[in-house]
Amino acid sequence: MRRLRNPAILLLALLLTFLGSAAVCAVPVEPATVTITLSYQSGGGWVVAPQTFTVTADLSDTYGYTDEVAAGEVSLMDAIIAAEYSIWEDALTEDFAVSYGPYGAGVVKMLGDAGFNFGFLSNGIMTDSVNRETIHEGDRIEMFLYQDAYYMDAYAWFERDGARVDALNLAPGEAAVLTMRAAAGAGYFEAENVIETDILFVEAEGGAAWFGETYVTTDAEGVLTVSFDEAGVYILSAPTAELEMDFLPLVAPWLVVTVAEPAPAPVQEPAPTALQKWEALLPSWLSGIPALADWFEWVIVVLFFGWIWYLV
């Protein structure tokens, strides 16, 4: 059997391999940053109206909380703390609390409310526990306080031509035909049309929002027509609805209607005439003297027709 002449070489190779692997494993993961839309409904309105938040991974760790998402990823808990900070800033630790258990962390206090009846939806789907749910770029996070004693609050939205719509751009007097839909159990049960339900204006100020006057009522098919004569921004929603299951509070929709005059069509420049093409050929010093320019044009015309006469 062949013997290794220099065992030190083998030991050095093993050491270098170990150090290289350790170096690869030790490369830190850059924390992700995502931009999302987040809202929180409570008390018949929005404590946090739908708005944009930029959230960085591990924000919850900064305040002593623990999430269980992949390294560098943004958790729902990070997003909640971002919303908390926008209101309470450094006092958020007095307003936010969670309870850890075998199924993750449950929120027991946030954004001015306390209890065990908080609900969380990501893009219309019920989330995992707040410390296990990963948030991605562009997600729509809807948080709410259950109002129904049996947690049957219905998740509602508007549709146009069969597709969900959260914003409309209309010209004054232009109409859009919509259908209001909802699913009980925060979206768990089958969706149905929301019939004969009042659609209200929403008033928003300072990051919060509340229901205003009635705008229109859906018909027996859940259909409504949206149209405004004056330019402006209108927000429409509904707090409750009569569904097949029961009369239920809603995880309310949020429809932003922007009414503005359409932009004028671009003016198309007419094609240059034959005379304009001739003028473009004139020397710059000549075109700056109108009398000489006109004289030069006449000379060109006379020579042209003289050449034609000569050929004939």
Rg over alpha carbons: 34 Å
Largest sheet: 10 strands, mixed
Shape: elongated
Helix content: 10-25%
Low-confidence parts, pLDDT < 50 over ≥5 residues?
10-16, 18-26
List the domain count as a whole number.
2
The name of the CATH architecture of the largest domain is Beta Complex
Give the strand order, joined by hyphens, for the main sheet: 8-7-10-1-2-17-16-19-22-13
Number of helices: 7
Determine and state the CATH class of the largest domain.
Mainly Beta
| Category from helices, strands and their pairing | alpha+beta
Q: Report strand %.
A: 35-45%
In total, the number of strands is 22
The multimeric state of the shown protein is single chain
Distance between the termini: 111 Å
Kindly report the average pLDDT value.
85
In CATH terms, what is the fold-level topology of the largest domain? Ferric Hydroxamate Uptake Protein, Chain A, domain 1
Spell the H/E element sequence.
HEEHEHEEEEEEEEEEEHEEEEEEEEHHH
Q: What attributes does this structure have?
A:
alpha+beta, Immunoglobulin-like, single chain, Ferric Hydroxamate Uptake Protein, Chain A, domain 1, 2 domains, ten-stranded mixed β-sheet, 312 residues, seven-stranded mixed β-sheet, 24% helix, 7 helices
